[in-house]
Amino acid sequence: MPSPEPAVLELAAPISGIVVSLDEVPDEAFRQRLVGDGIAIDPLGDTLVAPCDATVLLVHKAKHALTLDVDGLELVLHLGLDTVKLDGAGLEILVRAGDRVKRGDPLLRFSPDLIATRAVSLLTPMVVANMDQVERLETMSGRVQSGQTGVLRVFRKAAAVGDAPKQGATVLRSAPMRVQDPSGLHARPAAALAAVARRFTADLRLAKGSKDANLRSVVSMMALEVGGGDLVTVLASGDDAAAALAAVSALLVVESEPRAATLAAVGTAEAKHEGAKPAGAIPAGAREVAVTEGVLHGVSASPGTAAGVVVQLRYDDAVPAARAADAKIERRQLDAAIAAAHLQLEGLRTRLTQEGQGERATIFAAHQELLEDPEMLDQAIAGVQDGWTASWAWQQSYTAQAERLAALRDPLLAARATDLRDVGRRVLHLLVGRDTQARSLPMDAIVIAEDLTPSDAADLDRSRVRALCTTMGSSTSHVAIIARGLGLPAIAGIDIRALHIPVGTRVLVDGDTGRLRIAPSAAEEQAASSRRQARDARRTAAQALAQQDAVTRDGQRIEVAANIGDVRQGADVVSGGADGVGLLRSEFIFQAREREPNEDEQTELYGSVARALGPKRLLIIRTLDIGGDKPLPYLPMEKEENPFLGARGIRFTLAEPAVMRRQLRAILRSAAEGKVAVMFPMIATLAEWRAASAMVEEERVALNAPRIPVGIMVETAAAALMADHFAREADFLSIGTNDLTQYTMAMDRTNPRLAVQVDAMHPAVLRLIAITAEAAAKHGKWAGVCGALAADPLAIPVLLGLGVSELSVDLPVVAESKARVRELSLAECRATAQLALDCADGEEVRVLVRARHGEVN
Q1: Bridge-partner residues for 806, per DSSP?
Q2: How much is the pTM?
Q3: Disulfide engineering: 84 pairs with which of 58, 75, 171, 186, CB 3.0-4.6 Å?
């Protein structure tokens, strides 16, 4: 809890009536605190009064709302809901902007009967708009008297930060956009824009004529008085200005929800660099750009099609700031909730392990460790000892810790912030009695969310969910792994407007193309159903032949192996028809532990997989790949400005030779149980390879063990371009297309705004694969692909044509990948591959493959 205590502002009821939580207000903008935080009142009077001494900052032209300035705090009073459409009917404004008012002074008089019959609701919110200046709020309840009864205590921060943009900064400028809704930018659409703007660090302004407004401030935008038909322009400056401009403009150009203001783009959609200045006149020849209605785009995260009804997945973390009667009781409740959360997480780990989903099970082991975070626990306990309820103290503690992590630029720490919120919510819901088990979903549910946490995925009722869509992530992100593991179509990085599709709306998800269609026709649903049936039939037929070799029509056998992260999946590899394990992600053995597994433990774990595979199937063990987005709690790592370009993979383990040698000895010893190989991740230089391979030989000689194959992962352009040198010395080359793509394209594959562009089918990536495969063949070695691209049925013809002789894919798609190989002629694939190298982009490659090898259901 903060110390010293911040300044407190006491606010009286702006109208007589019954205090209502914002959670009960039937308007998403207020319920989700997009406008600000505070309370609402169900009125029993006809006059809105000043809740404290203040200056009138803004009177909305529709007379339904006012904003007061209280020494820098912006207090919004909003009479009823959807009253903007009354256009002043039944409303009488009693003050003007700039007036000084005293507590209890009348501001607005209205006709309750008229408002009640023509508005959505009479509920009247009073919220603090600039919550960045607020430490916390305390809300009251019950019946209140206007101007007299205290309803809200605002604890202010010690200092506030101004919102003026930096002078002289380079500014990106959108095309002018025309407001279509007659109501213009009132509170709801302004709040939606502010919510998007706050996700970025860039300075964002909305310009109208010679005036502009801070896009993070609802009040600032309302003061701009943007009406129907007005032209506006978005201005952005700062580190992430381009992404911010695109996100805000995307929300502006298409209607977000039935009652939100809409704008249409005028002129080109391309942002221009220029000095900071307000919006100018419409350029000559300007035209309105039509936006395809009913279709939102993202990137394919998991293949397949599904139709169903929208379920918006939202978090309900709101708890009141309340004082507790007995701190000892609150402490006991907190301890009990944490203990119960531990049991829930242990149950999830056990269930997922039994279902063969060991990788996901390890996530919840890490969550159990987060529950023991001393700083988070100490802060929560301190809050309880200061007299706050356990729920409030816990919420303040875990959200503060998560926000500290999320604010850092390190993507690794941002990912940990998501886990911290997931754990925090679990305990919070236990404290306040909310259901933490599986959500009640309709049949044929299409789940839409900003992101899916591990708990969300574990709690989904898989008998009812048909598809997943998230605005975050990419084809290789967490939601993609979840969806593929559950066999569900999924779209990642989808347009943020998906979050505003009304619950219950029927939609069609196409996980193959990354498109979501709103209100599909019967014919479209039937076509999707036919595709789904064809896919199911294909999957069934493939499973029936899973144990047969993958041999092309012209007689070339291709190895199809499995990627695994759980040593208990060895038997599943055999039953699933895989020819071996092309990638055992050994870091999962090291994660979710309080200490490093010793040599004997590792030997037994690796050996158990080798025994399960038998004497003929090869087990390739990748050495510890941490760093970047894969931390270990017991191996401290120095903070790096860009960890994905830092000491990750082989660079980290070479710097920790004792850890490396223990693992290599365990791998060499496990080779007594079957066919075992080792490969090193993130190799970029010959020096790295030679140092690592020398360690293998030194430990082999010391153990008097037989030689085993030693290879590298090709995940950098440097490794691909030097493949000829590596192939002379290494026994095999395995191409990790996930990292190879992001490093080649210089695009973070976890960034939702870049998801569509991080395309492993791009000819630039394919050329590096070609170089690698050619070098391997020249020296009599084999080259495989163990990234997500290996399982893409459109990519397989190209990969085979480029000379790849091994595909290592996730277990659920082994049989289908083998079936795809059997459909192909290697000679035809070689011709396709040569044409693909000359394509302009990944989409052109896909068109080529479809034309030459047919559509894949």
Answers
A1: 559, 784
A2: 0.55
A3: 186
